[in-house]
Amino acid sequence: MMIPVFFVIDVSFPHYDRRLIETISSIGLHIVDAIEASGTLGFGRIGNMPYCHIFSHSGNQRLSNTIGRIKQAVAEGKVSAKIVGYILLLDSQKMVLAGKDVYKGIEDFIRFMGAVQPYIESISPFVIAVLNQHLPGAMPLEDIRKLLPIADAKLVTCDVTDKISVKNVFLELLKNLPDDEIVSAARQAVFSA
Predict the structure, then answer these.
(1) Distance between the two ends of the chain, CA-based, in angstroms?
(2) Ordered domains of the chain (ranges, CATH)
(3) What are the respective helix, strand and coil percentages of the chain, to the nearest 5?
(4) Sheet containing 3-10: which strands, arranged edge to edge?
(5) What is the crossing angle of helices 16-24 and 163-175, to 10°?
C-alpha cells in the first residue's frame, strides 16, 4: 500500500515546522537536508499502523526544488507514497501594524502565496495553519484572510506545541478529501496519534 504523506511549509524562520513535527511525530523529528540560508527539509511520522510521513520545509528558498525532489522520488518508485495535502504555517504574531493598512511580517507569506498561486493545483489541497493567535499582538484571523491573495484559502488556528491543536489541523485538511484507501489510512493515523 502507498504511504500517505503530508507536506508542511514554513516560510518564516523560527522553525515552527520542526515544533509541529516534534509534537505529533511518533519517531520525533529528523533533519533530512539542511542548506544554509536555503531551507531545511525535515521528516517525521504520524501513527504506527497505519502511519503517515510528514515532510517539512522551512525557509522561503528552494521550496519548488524540495517539492519537486519528493514528487520525483514518488514518480520513480523510490518512495511508495502519495502526497495527501499541504499545511502552510503562518505566524500571526509577526503581523505588526506598520502603517494605516500595511502589516509587516505577512509580506513574505503573501509573496510566497502569490508565487505559488499559478501552481496552486500542484500544492492542493492545502490549509493555512495560523499560529500564535493566543498571544498579544496577533493579527485577527479575518484580517489575515482579507490580505491573502487566495480568497478561498482555509485558515485553521494552531498551537504547534499542543498535540490536539496540531491533530485538528491535519484533520481539517483531510475533512473534505474524497475517501479512498490512502486518505482513510491518513485519517486513522492522525486519529491514533
Answers:
(1) 20
(2) 3-192 (3.40.50.300)
(3) 40, 30, 35
(4) 30-35, 39-46, 52-58, 3-10, 81-91, 126-131, 155-158
(5) 90
Q: What is the DSSP letter of 120?
A: G
Cα separation, 124 vs 116, whole angstroms: 11
Grid cell in block for residue 94: 509577526
Rounded to 5 degrees, φ, ψ at 179 are: -75, 120
User: Residue 104's closest CA among 58, 137, 78?
Assistant: 137
27-86 pLDDT, tens digit per residue, is 888 876 655 444 567 788 898 877 888 877 776 555 666 666 666 766 777 667 778 888
When pLDDT is cut at 50, 70 and 90, the band that residue 123 belongs to is low
For 100, other C-beta atoms within 10 Å of its C-beta total: 5
The structure's pTM equals: 0.81
